Amino acid sequence: MVNLKITTALFTVLLLLFSCSHKSETETLLSYADTLMEEYPDSALRSLDLSPEEIEGLSDKECARYALLLARATDKCKLSLLPCDSLLNVALDYYDDDEKEKAVALLYKGRLAVEMEEAEEATTCFQKGLTIIQDFPKELKTKNLLLSSLGNIYFDAGYYDKSMEIYQTMYECCTTDLEKSIALNNISTYYCLIEEKDSTLMFQREALNHAIASGDSLQIAMSKHRLSLEFDSFDELDSALYYEKMALKELPQKENHGNYYSNLGYLILKTGGSKDSALHYLNKSLEDVPIEGKTSCLKSLYNLEKENGDYKKANTYLEEHAAIIDSLYCMEQSTEIQQLIYEYNTKMRVREEQLKGKRIIYCTFAGFVAICFIIILAYQNYINRKKRIQLQYKQSLEQTQNKLSSLETTIENNQLMITLLKQEQNNLKQEHENKEQQIEEREQTITRLKKEKQQLLDWLFAQSNIYQRVITLSQQTTSNKKQMKALTTTEQEQLKKTIFGIYQSYISFLHIEYPRLTEDDQLLLCLQETSLSPLAIAICFGYTDTHPLNQKKYKMKERMSREESKV
User: Fold this and answer.
1) Residue 358 confidence (pLDDT)
2) What is the number of structural domains in the chain?
3) Nearest Cα to 102, choosing from 73, 68, 75, 76?
4) Is residue 370 part of a domain?
5) Hey, which end of the chain has fewer CB within 10 Å, N or C?
6) Quick one: which of 81, 90, 29, 27 has its CA closest to 56?
7) What 3-state class would DSSP assign to 428?
8) Residue 238's CB: how many other CB atoms inside 10 A?
């Protein structure tokens, strides 16, 4: 009996010592990761790489703190927050609404919701986090991040005025030049959207000044890159080219240079610079630019090589362009599958709490079968959709070729003649001047034929009833905008059908050049090619003034810019 009591006492002492040792090791690990967080987030993330068994051994307090550190390190490394989902739920349950850590947990839960395209849930998390953080006036960093995330949600949803208010509040919370530069970048984007040139450039220059004051070379490069894009949107190409060159000089070597090289190549082409230089930077951009931006680069390279007469290289770039478009489609399908898997796994975690023991095996097996079924259906849908797209493209191509065959044949013959004449020019130097004159005449012929083609299309549009209706509406004399009339929904559909039928070749070009443009975007670009006034074009979309049309133009330019190179 005595021996039993002694054994029990010794076991209790050993257990207490082990618990104290474990607690000390965990606290040391978490504190070490916290010290690395700001300057070396990747190292912090590696130190937090614990096995599921180790995580289960943590106390509720340790697990909650670990969840916040892991989410913070993951977010700083620009990785998916999906693996942090269940741990963030633990943190949200552990911290009360009167603790600042609850606001931090809501911040990363909201960013995970943004990643999963659940805007409503993300907005709720950010708003609740801001409510909590109001009681902690010294926690400006967390408040700044919450405001930035909420402002981006409103901006992406089209509530630009509301996002502007949040960005201004965000700027007031900034304590460093780096934070002020980021906030001013967002404010500048708002003014660029509403086409207020002076305000756009003023705030962007102020953002650049704060970036320079911070000494952060990456932020300096990004601010100059933004200035370049904004000057480009206002057709000040020389300034845009200057700031893009300056941005490249500031950008750290370890950062991705793809978007910068791509924009520089496009600007060189737009300003009439050396085609060789443009080719150089566009090819360099292919090494670093994200896969979404490679399509426009490859298309530009194809056009350049075609103009240079190197049809072999041109064809190579065109094939790569087509392959990437197919790859992007596969990636989209994969993302949808991942989201379905995520939603399913979330439901499974709830079910696992309700159903213990043997039923867990059944649920896991059912989940595996469901996922396999989803993958099979998704793959089959991809194959069928690809076939439909190929068939539709073939039919559209045949129709376009039948309508414009004569003009296109003439253009191609003249282009071929130019190539032959250039070859003869190299072989027969004594006929140099004569051949150059012939080349010039052929190029003039091509230009004239293209102009004639466009005039014919414009004439066809001018003969339509819907064109006359638009002209009549645009000549309204009333001073009250509320009394002005615009095209009805039925008339808009009639207009779209008429435009898409007449300008089909241009629509096909836009589809290839910018595959993500909407039908409204394509319609707007076609209308801009006509002689219609801005007010008449606004009436075509059901507006009675040009302000909504300017917003639509900005969104369209933004989508086109994202395909070419995204900031």
Assistant:
1) 54
2) 2
3) 68
4) yes
5) N
6) 90
7) coil
8) 9
